[in-house]
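Dual specificity protein phosphatase 4-like, Crassostrea virginica. Tokens?
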Amino acid sequence: MDTLAVTGITVDMLVKWQETLEEEILILDSRPFISYNEGHIVTATNVHCPPILKRRSGGFVALENIVPCGQKREKLENGEFRKIIVYDEDTTDLELSAKDSNLYSVLKSLRQQIDSIEVDELCYIKGGFKAFSRLYPQHCRCQSKLPTSCTLNVEPDNAHKQEAPVEILPFLYLGNFQDASNLELLHRLGITSLMNVSTKCKNLFEDDFTYMNIPVDDNPNADLAVWFPESNSFIDTVRENHGRVLVHCQAGVSRSATICLAYLMYTAKVGLETAFEHIKSRRSVISPNLNFMRQLESYEKEIKSQDGTLNTSVSDSSMDSSMDTSSNETASSSSSGLQSTSGSSISQGQVFGGGAFDFTFSPTFSSPNTPLLSPS
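Tokens:
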């Protein structure tokens, strides 16, 4: 296949394609998952592109990260998608986009990897999600109470079940009520304490474990941030006593994930995006509601105002050695038994090789052969 030029398309063009070529277009959201979770184009797939991966690979993003969904990636490799559309928040002209932006990196990496795939168009949306959602809110899915076309993504009672809790840090686990109800599992993991972030889940084993209750519902008005100091202190106490705590709500998706995010931000002095990538890489179903995300954003500002510059990963912080100590002291008393664990460092993960390669853009959809720039 000849090398594709990248073209900018209007939101109207995308909607036309959605209506006439729905099965032949692949829409990719290059924004951080936090933004994607707040709102995205229906059918769009979120690119997994954490900052540390881009830094280590020189901006290159592997196809497995660009299209994390195996089924969609297989369709792409089989030539079933004729058009690939990538968007970010609000880029109107790719020529003016920063070379280290997700949009630029994803488009650049795609062009290197789809030479053997039958694709007719590789495009970006002019104006990004901001322009699209303004003109076509009915084609978006978002966590917002305001637009009538969008619905709030609240935590369902019986959804997102996983077979076992996941290790966030050697002394901190995230799971659901089903996990908290399994005495054998709790003993096998070496759990010594449980944090119950719900109003309906019962403390089933109060004779066996120390409990902390945070009676908060998963709704647009709940104040979970007021509990952050107390929950952080509880987890710190468990850690100092060389124990392990399981934080759970009903589904292990919103409330308990928010508590774990707040603790990681507080103890490792990292930003929300870094903490989110760390936890999501271990428990992919996490999805704090928009209300809780706003509270976490405010909490990030509070931490930054107190500590100045935030770390970009847990490995940058001084807590590494203490986490290793905690892990070693508890390892002999329990086996992991986890569905997905990756140790204590946010920065762990597969690193893909990259490097500079030629990349030309076309300014509009109608003139794909006009080069705008050729980055080094």
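Residues 290-307 form the longest helix (18 residues).
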